Request: fold
Amino acid sequence: MSTDLEQSILRTLCWFAVFDRPITGFEIWKWLIEPVRAYDLSEVYRVLEGSGWVKTRFLIDRGYYRLRDEHLGGVETRSQNYLDSVKKFRKLKRASQYLRLFSSAQSIAAVNSIAWMNTNEQSDIDLFVITKPKSIWSTRFWMVAPFIALGKRPGASNEDPFCFSFFATSSALAMNHLRLKEGDHYFAFWLKSLVPMVDHDGYLQKLQEENAWADHVLPNASSRRIHPHHASKQIPSIIPHTGFLESFYRSVSHKRFPLAIRNLANKDSRVVISDDMLKFHETDRRAEFEHSYRERIKQTLI
Reply:
């Protein structure tokens, strides 16, 4: 019989196999999926090195672990994608000098593939922004405007476009209602992998606290702080809050929304449009990832 830790390790390897991503022993410990208790790093390595049940199910390649049946090119791809992400973070750090000028912006974080240092030349620079209440429309409008003018938005540029696809006000940080009912490991990983670029008054930590359900999925994944390499200069916010014009910016933005966004608005959790949340994920693969993950578990945990 396998132990809880052995099964949690294999669940973690199954999840990352969905994305063809080999991981280190430390990453296995950090991203342990749904263990019954918090395990020490030494306990994880003890299982990786000594468990026959686990060893028959994974391979180790240059210090990276992967499921036995997964393809061999993952380590090279991961190294290439890491270098591309470093380049993108340099551009994001420069852009953050502008983004932090908004007095209405509480927090700005890199999300999705760039947060995992797993981008390629076609990947967007995805951002999540927390704003003050009654300022979400004006903040998004003026944040995005220069990137539209410079042709640095998805669809306009093939080179490191900036994607502003998720905004929330500080009063709408509890996001349990966005989870898929049939299972949503991706959303837990999304929350725990946020890379802070700007964070006034600890609102990204409040985001984690408001979504404590993710701690039960990934108990070892602590929230990140701003890394010195990502920190932009401490420039005072000089673009004032224009909340009294929110209705104007809402109207202008609605007229600019693509037809696909308007058709999906508030039908489910893919596209949410309100005065407290703007979420534009018309291509939402969470259900696909969840299904692939569960299929791998069936094949591996036998």
User: Anything to note?
Assistant: The chain has a mean pLDDT of 91. The beta strands are 58-61, 64-67, 105-111, 125-131, 162-169, 195-199, 271-273, 277-280. The two ends are 10 Å apart (CA to CA).
